[in-house]
UniProtKB/TrEMBL annotation:
Key words of the record: Amino-acid transport, ATP-binding, Nucleotide-binding, Transport
Domain ABC transporter: 7-247
Homology family: Belongs to the ABC transporter superfamily.
GO BP terms: L-amino acid transport
Molecular function via GO: ATP binding; ATP hydrolysis activity; branched-chain amino acid transmembrane transporter activity
Name of the protein described by the UniProt record: ABC transporter ATP-binding protein
Organism: Streptomyces fumanus
Pfam families (UniProt xref): ABC_tran
InterPro entries: AAA+_ATPase, ABC_transporter-like_ATP-bd, ABC_transporter-like_CS, BCAA_Transport_ATP-bd_LivF, P-loop_NTPase
Gene3D superfamilies attached to this UniProt entry: P-loop containing nucleotide triphosphate hydrolases
Matches recorded under SUPFAM superfamilies: P-loop containing nucleoside triphosphate hydrolases
Amino acid sequence: PDEAPALHVEEIDVTYGRALSALRSVSLTVPHGGVVALLGANGAGKTTLLRAVSGTLRLHRGAVTAGRIRYGGTVLDGRDPVAAVRAGVVQVPEGRRVFAGLTVDENLRTGGLGLSRRAPAQVREARERVLTLFPRLAERHRQAAGLLSGGEQQMLAIGRALMASPRLLLLDEPSLGLAPLMVERIAEVVREINAQGTAVLLVEQNAGMALSLADHAHVLEVGEVRLSGPAAELARTDAVRRLYLGET
Ligand code: ATP
């Protein structure tokens, strides 16, 4: 396998059903070990881009109709989620969808299921890493996930994705609906995950948080990339400050 794989999204078009165009000629790169943020209003196509990369697009009746998505040596467009997970690419869906009736441990065990022949030692190691990263989950590992707070459920959703030991984590609005302290905690966790060598593609409406974490950022507007650049530079542009950082 490629030692330093990068994600390359090259001029992709995505449509839902027969006609609804969701992305047009979108390109971006996530370098090995990097953090890239994707900003944009509701409906801009951020989630769609993550789905295209993670192979979940088809579950939503969408398709990549032009362009190419590559991760290291693997072509990902038109593939399924198992192919993406095997290549090292895992998405944390929006809305912290955990299995409410299952315990924290059982939820974690559903992570990385696409990776068949993993040695039990590898699975144990992944679990240890997750529980070290999220001490709250360690304390509550036997509790039903539905009883966790919103922030804890978001952590569980991230933890479950980490069980597959991804090299690229796709995070869809991890801060959504969380109190400021919990948002800061999630930001710390993303930093920590990245420091351990996992690249992150972060979709956020919380532009302040995203730009503080990312090296590079892109702004999507109705299916097209409008602005791209180093995160620190984008944070200084008038359009981003007005529209996404709430400044006047
Ligand atoms: P949000 O922050 O609201 O999730 P987003 O930037 O992630 O917004 P997408 O969810 O990717 O945007 O949606 C992009 C466009 O595709 C929107 O016009 C949306 O209505 C449409 N869309 C999304 N999912 C589907 C689907 N399963 N079928 C048809 N159209 C869809």
